[in-house]
Amino acid sequence: MSDQKIYLTMLRMLKDGYQGNNGEQELYLLEELRRTDDIDEFKAIAGVIGATGGLFCIPTLMAFSVEQGSPKVMPAIFAITDIHSRVEKTDAPEIHNLFTPAWWQPRWKGSFPAFISYVFCITEMIRSVPEHRHETVDTIGEQLVKEFALNLFPFETFRELRLSTPGCDSESDIRKLVSEVDGDMLMISMFKEHNIHKSKETLYEENILNMRCDYLLTRLNFKLEYQLFRYLLKTAEILNAPEQH
User: Fold this and answer.
1) Which residues contact 167 (CB under 8 A, 6 or more apart)?
2) How far is CA 126 from the centre of its chain?
3) pLDDT at position 197
4) Which domain holds residue 18?
5) How far apart are CA 204 and CA 190, in angstroms?
6) pLDDT tens digits, 33-45
7) 18 and 63 part of one domain
8) CA dist list (Å): 65 to 18, 94, 194, 207, 242
9) Which of 102, 39, 91, 97 is nearest to 66 (CA)?
10) Gyration radius from the chain CA atoms
C-alpha cells in the first residue's frame, strides 16, 4: 500500500466494522478508489469498502462493475455483493433498485439543444482544471452520449449534432445554471439561519440525485475536485427536463 493514510483508514474501518457514522472515511476511500490505477490497491480498497461500507458506496462500485474488460470489474462486484448481503432482507424496493446495474443508466429527458448546452457546461467545468484544459466539447460530448446511451439519429456523432442543431442557446442555459447556484446558496443560508429542516422526502430525493451524480462522475473518470464537481453536475441536471409545450 503506497499511502500510509489509506492503509490506516482501511485498518480502522475493518476494526470498527460497518458503522452508520463512517461517512467521512467512506468518502476518503471512495476517492482513492477512483484515483488509483494500481489494481492491487484497488482490490484492497474495494474489499474494505465491501466489508464495512454502506449504500452510498454503491454508485461508485457499480460504475466500475460495468466497465467492460477492466480488471476492476470483479473486485467491484464482490464489494457490491458484500454490501447487498447486509441489506438483502429489507422490504424497501427502492433499496433493491440500487443493486440493479440498469437502474443506474443515466437517461436524457431533455431536448437535443439542452443536451448540447449540458455538454458545454460540463466541458467548462472540466477544462477549469489544468490537467484537462486540452479537452474539447466534442470529445466530452461523445463520452456523455455514450453514458446516456443517447440516440442521435439522424446524426452519427455529437459534433454533427452540435453543428446541425438550431436554437441552441448555451449562453442562456449557462446563465440559468448560475442563477440556480445563486438561488441554492441563498436557500441553504436561509435554512441554516432559521434552523429549517428538510423533509424526509426531500432528503431522499437529494440523496438519490447525489448518488446518480457519483455514478456518472466515476464513469467519466476525470481527476477533479470531487465534491465541487458533483455539486455542479447536480445543478446542471436542471437542463435535463422534458420540453414544455
Assistant:
1) 113
2) 14
3) 61
4) 4-104
5) 20
6) 999 999 999 999 9
7) yes
8) 22, 20, 43, 21, 30
9) 102
10) 19
pTM for the model:
0.84
Q: In this structure, which amino acid lies at residue 195?
A: N
Last residue in a domain, options 84, 104, 124: 104
Residue 98 makes CB contacts below 8 A (sequence gap 6+) with 55, 58, 62, 211
Grid cell of 151 as nine digits = 440516440
The reply to whether omega before 106 is within 30° of 0 (cis) is no
The domain total for the chain is: 2
* Per-residue 3-state assignment (H helix, E strand, C coil) for 67-91: CCCCCCHHHHHHHHHHHHHHHCCCC
* 8 Å CB contact between 121 and 236: yes
- Of 166-170, 206-210, 214-218, give the lowest mean pLDDT range: 166-170
pLDDT tens across 58-113, in order? 999 999 999 999 999 999 999 999 999 988 777 677 888 899 999 999 999 998 99
Based on the fold, state whether residues 154 and 208 are members of the same structural domain.
yes
pLDDT at 21: 63
**Position 166 confidence tier, pLDDT thresholds 50, 70, 90:** confident
Q: Is pLDDT above 80 for 9?
A: yes
